Amino acid sequence: MLDAFMTAARRKLRPLGNESAVLRYATKHNWVDRIHHYVVRFASTNPAWRLHSLHIPHITSSTQSLAICSNAVATKRPPPLRPRFCNHPGIWKVDHPLNASLPAVRLWDHIDVRFQALRQLYPDLVLDVVLLSSQRLSATTGVLQSTYYNYEALEVVVLTRGRRCVDTDTATNSSSEQPTASTCTTFFIDDYRYESDRVQTNLVDWYATIALLRGCAQAYVWVRLLLLVHGAYVVAVAGKRTSESLLTTTMLILVKIPFEVVVYSSLLPVTGYVIALLLDSSFMDIFLDSFWATVGGSINIGLVSFLRSTAVQMRNVWLLSLLVSLAVFGVRRSRDYWGDGIPAVRGLAICFTSTLTVFGPYKKTTWRDTNITDLFEIADEGQVMDIIRSNPVGHYNISNYFFDDSAVMLMFCINAVVWLAVAFNIVRYLASQTSRLDSDSKGLILSSTPVMPCGAHRLWIEIGFPADIGWRHET
After folding, report:
1. What domain of life does the native source organism fall in (predicted)?
2. What span, in angstroms and rounded, lies between the C-alpha atoms of 144 and 474?
3. Which long-range contacts (CB under 8 A, 24 or more apart) does 329-334 make?
4. Which residues sit opposite 23 in a β-bridge?
5. Per-residue pLDDT reduced to its tens digit, 127-139
6. What's the alpha-carbon Rg for the chain, to the nearest Å?
7. In terms of C-beta density within 10 A (0-12 exposed, 13-18 middle, 19 or more buried), how is residue 142 classed?
8. The pTM is what?
9. Gap between the Cα atoms of 287 and 197, Å rounded
């Protein structure tokens, strides 16, 4: 297949075979590569635009270096014939191809060294080189429009073909001006690929703010938990009536407090975490997208390494808890008194939903979709204008939507958990009709906290919460 591709490219771009040639084009393709792409493929195929350039350098029997980006030939070579990575502001360096202990070399020097090595290894073969460069540019802004992320994925494929050619011209006149015909047999094809991901962002300027938000929120949670333990200990000391130790009594009091009350009930730390997430959520998606990017979509994923990298997505648990808190607050405001208990959402349900999102970046080749849906050629008008002309409105990967890929997976997990709870309740209801199962058992998601007739929320208004009110723990 690669042999046929190189032959077709040379026949199309170099019909005479005596000069270098280049073809620039842009493609729009589907990008269904992860679970969070696959679960919403019925609504969106996640299209992506890429810029490509196909280069066929002119090589003779005396050529020892391709000199693709050499300054010595830059004045002789028209600008359109130079690949884009030659003018890239960042110097792309890779390990030395012959000796890894040597310092890293520039990309174009790496290509030259490998070509020279193949020339020395196969001196009697005719070498052809086809270079294919691909570039995916994208710009993403944070939800608060205060941070930006310019992402660039560069891929370079260098195909080197070695052929053994035999002259088949039967003409006896050596002075004939007719070209000599030859038959070539492909001996080998060397396929070498380079990949690079670059991110330009102002997130560093916001690092102190983001760290302060998360640090203060975490400190508030720990201080609140310590005060809760201290309060439970005071109650255990004041109401000790059994032979149990104070530690056991304190722990029994703590485990009776709903999990969502301990962790997610205070809006102060939750809001701090959410604001920090609003600032750097897009970077999280870019990191996970590039961390597991592979050619062809195949990858050997280790469970531990995968979970260690994708666990960062569990930060959206704070966004989910904020949405739950606002929804529960609105429901509670609908009436003054709840005789059957104050409604709430279980903290374990929130954690379980957030945990499911860590599988969003998982990829598998069976559901991969990268089909090209649009293609057009780009005129060679120079390096800068080339990029500008190929990126009109609608042809550039720009996004500022809410939380990017992580939000898609979060919404899917919320719906999955809700439907799971609905199915569980239906099965429980049907089972209660045919057996003695308790149909009034608590749900998987919703819970209720009993309202005490003389609870603190009522005593505060009636008697000003006097200091002589005692708390008693009974076992």
Report:
1. Eukaryota
2. 49
3. none
4. 54
5. 999 999 988 888 7
6. 33
7. buried
8. 0.70
9. 10
The Cα–Cα gap between 126 and 19 comes to 16
Which residue in this structure is represented by tokens 């049907």? 430
State both tokens at 174. Answer: 């050596």
Please provide the average confidence, as pLDDT, over all residues in the chain: 77
Tokens of 280: 């750097």
Question: Band of the pLDDT at 141, cuts 50, 70, 90?
Answer: confident
pLDDT for 80 beyond 70 = no
DSSP string, 343-395: EEE-HHHHHHHHHHGGGTT---GGG-B--EEEEEE-----HHHHHHHT--TTS
- SS3 state of residue 7: helix
User: Tokens 């771009």 belong to which residue?
Assistant: 13
Residues in Cβ contact with 447 at an 8 Å cutoff, skipping those fewer than 6 apart: 258, 260, 343, 344, 345, 346
The continuous run of DSSP H or E covering 321 comes out as: helix 316-332
Query: Which tens digit of pLDDT belongs to each residue from 13-54?
Result: 876 666 677 888 888 888 888 888 888 777 666 788 888 889
Specify whether the CB–CB gap between 235 and 318 falls below 8 A. Answer: no
Domain ranges within the chain, ordered by starting residue: 2-201, 204-370+403-463
Structure tokens at 39: 């679960």
